[in-house]
Design a protein that fits this description.
The complex is a heterodimer. By secondary structure, chain A is an alpha/beta fold. Chain A has five helices and eight strands. In chain A, helix 2 runs parallel beside helix 4. The chains are: A alpha/beta, B mainly alpha. Chains A and B meet through strand 5 and helix 2 of A and helix 1 and helix 5 of B. Chain A: It comes from Sedimentimonas flavescens.
Amino acid sequence: MTLLAVENLTVTRGGLPVLEGLGFTLAAGHALVLRGPNGIGKTTLLRTLAGLQPALTGSISIPPETMAYAAHADGLKSTLSVTENLRFWASVYGTGPIDHALDRMNLRQLAERPAMSLSAGQKRRLGLARLLVTGRPVWVLDEPTVSLDAASVALFADAVRDHLAKGGAALMATHIDLGLHEAAVLDLTPFKALPPEEGGYKGSFDEAFT
Amino acid sequence: MIALLLRDLRLAVRAGGGFGLGLAFFLIVVTLVPFGVGPEGNVLARIATGVLWLGALLACLLSLDRIFALDFEDGSLDLLATAPVPLEGVVTIKALAHWITTGLPLVLAAPVFGVLLHLPGPAYFWLVVSLLLGTPALSVLGAFGAALTVGLKRGGLLLSLLVLPLYVPTLIFGAELVKRGASGMDTQMPLLMLAGITAATIAVVPFASAAAIRVNLR
């Protein structure tokens, strides 16, 4: 079953196209890793898929209320405890207990600690635990392994593997190899938009009012 | 939505949350006035309504940039915008949390501060009524200004410039209600105008605020 289908997509940053003619599908049980040099538009693409910014052309098909997005910033409140942070997002997504997320990301020992006292890697793990409490099948992840040590990367890879095994799907931009054999790799370099002087898009695209 | 309200209230009362900041500012403004205009009771009584309303308005302004800026900085706003909650609801709830932590304490403290300014006896009731009716509009309009400036570095001054003109009708009718009430005149017109402004603000402005946030998140 296809959970995410993208056709002929052009995404823009600062009013200029960065990626164009992009198309792919993501089926249940599959993961897609986006690769490409810095600045090619991985974050812009993920933000567009998450609905945070409009696409210039093309279509994005995803069933409603199936996506969970994790950005560079984890969205954690430093004065709230690990449990309070997770409970908040569980309430927002209308899901129940958070115990499985605490155990899965090895946060049980830190459950009552305020987020401000966590290390960068522990905060990242808490940010990823948030994904588990959303209950959403499609994960859209921007650099999910930043600040994680090798053991935490393996923990995260296991969580993704479990998610895929349960019929979920994951789209992620990452520079490291997670060791996920289920994951396909999409190199974004061929989809880099041409600059206007080389025949690329010349129109004006006002991001604010579309 | 309830979870968001509870989270914002919890954040406000914890260390660094800024709870009480507006109230302390209000107290300082009210205390400074007699130093500036002199301690004569009749002079203070004449200007008390205006000073109290202006002080409440400025105290409210002080904490506006925190409504969305902190969520923007830590990435929560992105995540809330992609969560299964309408952004208009998020804006309304965050304005409500701002009112509970800033506006409501001002309403409750205003009569006490009125004593410092020799506020005439009959004015106390109308001061509380006018602030109770008017301060929700200040929070909702402030949330609109905060939404417009979210993501801007040092947007606080711009926020004040944007929001203060929008506060003028609330200030005029709020202060007028107290003045009329204190002097035994008919209060129906300013009362209805103030209630109408607040009702219309709550009904319409969150949509504009949500649109502003969507644009600023791009």
